[in-house]
Q: What sequence folds into this?
């Protein structure tokens, strides 16, 4: 069973083998093998021409990748921590996302920006953020949030194929964990913009992103033993967002709970709530929509506080129990 | 018998939307006379004392001094023996019809047990979305459903457990299949209309009494223990719907007088509060407009409505609209036949 780090490396390697114009650049992605070991031995397998160690200069890294993409290459950028994309935001939001439209569609920016996100590593407020809504609110970017190795591989292959800039947000805590499902061999793609129904139940629909899919799955498994059955939906691509399966499921369960790691205020998951509230499926709701999200605070350094700042399995379990019990 | 009467934040200027309650001049339990000052209100333009609309006792102070209260929302509740105008027809450009006392009409039925007219404050019902859909489909008034959910919200369980009149439930079950067979449902109400020409002249009192008599044989369609016929009366203030309770059990001369006096009062924007509720059917006379027929939307909790239309100097057209959730085409035809035959 591959871990997510291995699955991402495998997808990059397949793309390297398929297309000579694919290359990887970033801080320590070469000789060191990546801050989280994702690129691993790729430097030794593909050489310094295709696995480029760069200076500590995120704006320059993304700028170089945008330029390369405009001139026919397919760069994969790794930014060591997603927090550091703030340094590169002009290239991401104003250049990569917009150039195609500013030039009347004459050019494309087929770039993938991979970056680890999230809390749980004791790295404090500047290395622990979940910035999904930053990217999801920029039209022109596609945003992928894989929750397991198999999805990560198939989605990354599609992201590299895509002519648009794609932000690929990998959760640090998932890197070392094998998935529940084995990673398919070969170069099978998973299309962007298709939500996945992870499991089906009749009492509650949970929509969760990234690591929260795994936590919600644990809860669904536990509550199934008590007769509460849960549908779990992983959007996988948060922009564009595929709400179809969510509407379909809520029409059956009548209850919706959404879970994300990032702060509640202006979080991505609020989009799911808004679309549900404005849809014709609204009339199927038999309970108020429940939101679980991070607190509106910088991630604390103290481990207990860090844990308390984002939804944990116990929180999800309690909320799921309550919504099913109180609203019948 | 006494009524609960909410004294609301009055509209004192064209632009006024809210007023600030300065202080009360009364306390709970105080006896007040019509014209006594109840409380003072401040707006951006004017400070004003609000007076008691009738004699009575202060039952509850709803707002607190310093509160900003929307116009039309209650400030205090009083109990009064006097029948008081319970609604305000005031529209822009028209002088605002102040709440005022009207002479109570002679009681219609002495023997019948007195039903206390429910006063509807701006009551809001909290219900989950699907409960609203379900209630609309089944013709359940959510105000009658007990809420057991968090924050007194009506849940699906509450709606599913709501008790319906067994006769209605039986009808509904029988007709559900019919509706499912392809009658188009508009706004969740499947309705049908029937029309007959009538070679007769009749006044409103005769018509109302005849219609009540027909409906009395079908308590399953009235959904109440009485028959209440609402007569739509148009005035420059808008539509008024005074309700005549059990008009078939009153001497026709008394009913004729009551219809006449109520019609006059309604045209002046005044309807006694006791006549504002309890409708189980509605009658709309279109002859004033030389129209022959119309298909009115059924009022909530009503299964039938009737229009009287103009055809010629000697003939009229009577149209009946029914809710197919509660009765079927055969019922409708029988009802209209019986009504026309009795005119």
A:
């Amino acid at each position: 069973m591959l871990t997510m780090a291995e699955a991402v490396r495998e997808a990059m390697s397949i793309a390297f083998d398929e297309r000579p114009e694919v290359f990887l650049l970033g801080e320590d992605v070469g000789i060191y093998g990546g801050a989280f070991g994702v690129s691993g031995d790729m430097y030794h397998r593909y050489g310094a021409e295709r696995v480029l160690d760069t200076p500590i200069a995120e704006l320059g890294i993304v700028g170089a990748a945008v330029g390369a993409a405009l001139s026919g290459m397919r760069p994969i950028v790794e930014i060591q921590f997603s927090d550091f994309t703030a340094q590169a935001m002009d290239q991401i939001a104003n250049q990569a996302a917009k150039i195609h439209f500013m030039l009347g569609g004459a050019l494309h920016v087929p770039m993938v920006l991979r970056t680890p996100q999230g809390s749980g590593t004791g790295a404090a407020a500047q290395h622990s953020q979940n910035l999904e809504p930053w990217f999801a609110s920029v039209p022109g970017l596609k945003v992928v949030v894989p929750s397991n190795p198999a999805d990560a591989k198939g989605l990354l292959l599609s992201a590299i194929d895509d002519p648009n800039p794609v932000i690929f947000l990998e959760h640090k805590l998932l890197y070392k964990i094998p998935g529940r499902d084995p990673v398919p061999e070969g170069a099978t793609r998973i299309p962007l913009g298709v939500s996945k129904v992870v499991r089906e139940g009749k009492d509650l629909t949970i929509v969760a992103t990234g690591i929260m899919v795994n936590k919600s799955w644990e809860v669904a498994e536990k509550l199934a033993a008590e007769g509460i059955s849960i549908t779990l939906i992983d959007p996988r691509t948060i922009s564009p967002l595929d709400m179809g399966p969510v509407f379909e499921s809520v029409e059956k369960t009548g209850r919706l709970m959404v879970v994300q790691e990032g702060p509640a205020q202006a979080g991505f998951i609020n989009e799911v709530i808004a679309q549900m509230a404005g849809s014709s499926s609204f009339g199927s709701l038999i309970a108020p929509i429940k939101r679980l999200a991070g607190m509106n605070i910088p991630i604390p350094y103290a481990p207990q506080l860090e844990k308390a700042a984002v939804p944990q399995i116990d929180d999800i379990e309690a909320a799921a129990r309550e919504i099913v019990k109180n609203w019948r | 018998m006494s009524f609960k009467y909410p004294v609301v934040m009055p509209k004192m200027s064209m632009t006024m939307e809210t007023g600030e309650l300065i202080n009360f001049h009364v306390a709970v339990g105080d006896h007040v006379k019509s014209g006594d000052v109840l409380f003072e209100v401040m707006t951006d333009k004017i400070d004003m004392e609000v007076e008691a609309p009738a004699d009575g006792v202060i039952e509850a102070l709803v707002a607190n001094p310093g509160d900003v209260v929307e116009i039309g929302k209650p400030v205090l509740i009083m109990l009064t023996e006097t029948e008081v105008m319970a609604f305000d027809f005031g529209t822009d450009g028209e002088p605002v019809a102040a709440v005022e006392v009207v002479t109570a009409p002679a009681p219609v039925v002495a023997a019948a047990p007195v039903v206390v007219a429910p006063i509807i404050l701006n009551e809001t019902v909290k219900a989950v979305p699907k409960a609203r859909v379900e209630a609309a489909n089944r013709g359940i008034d959510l105000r009658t459903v007990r809420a057991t959910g968090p924050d007194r919200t009506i849940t699906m369980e509450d709606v599913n457990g709501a008790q319906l009149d067994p006769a209605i439930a039986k009808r509904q079950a029988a007709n559900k299949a019919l509706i499912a067979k392809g009658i188009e449902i508009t706004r969740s109400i499947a309705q049908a209309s029937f029309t007959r020409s009538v070679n007769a002249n009749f006044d409103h009192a005769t018509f109302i009494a005849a219609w009540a008599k027909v409906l009395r044989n079908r308590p399953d369609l009235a959904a109440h223990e009485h028959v209440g016929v609402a007569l739509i009366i148009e005035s420059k203030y808008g539509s008024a719907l005074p309700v005549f309770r059990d008009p078939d059990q009153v001497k026709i001369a008394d009913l004729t007088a009551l219809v006449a006096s109520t019609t006059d009062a309604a045209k002046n924007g005044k309807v006694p509060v006791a006549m504002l509720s309890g409708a189980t059917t509605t009658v709309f006379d279109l002859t004033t407009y030389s129209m022959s027929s119309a298909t009115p939307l059924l009022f909530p909790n009503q299964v039938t409505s009737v229009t009287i239309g103009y055809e010629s100097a000697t003939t009229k057209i009577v149209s009946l609209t029914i809710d197919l959730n509660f009765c079927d085409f055969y019922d409708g035809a029988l009802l209209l036949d019986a009504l026309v035959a009795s005119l």
Q: What stands out?
A: DSSP finds twelve helices and twelve strands in chain A.
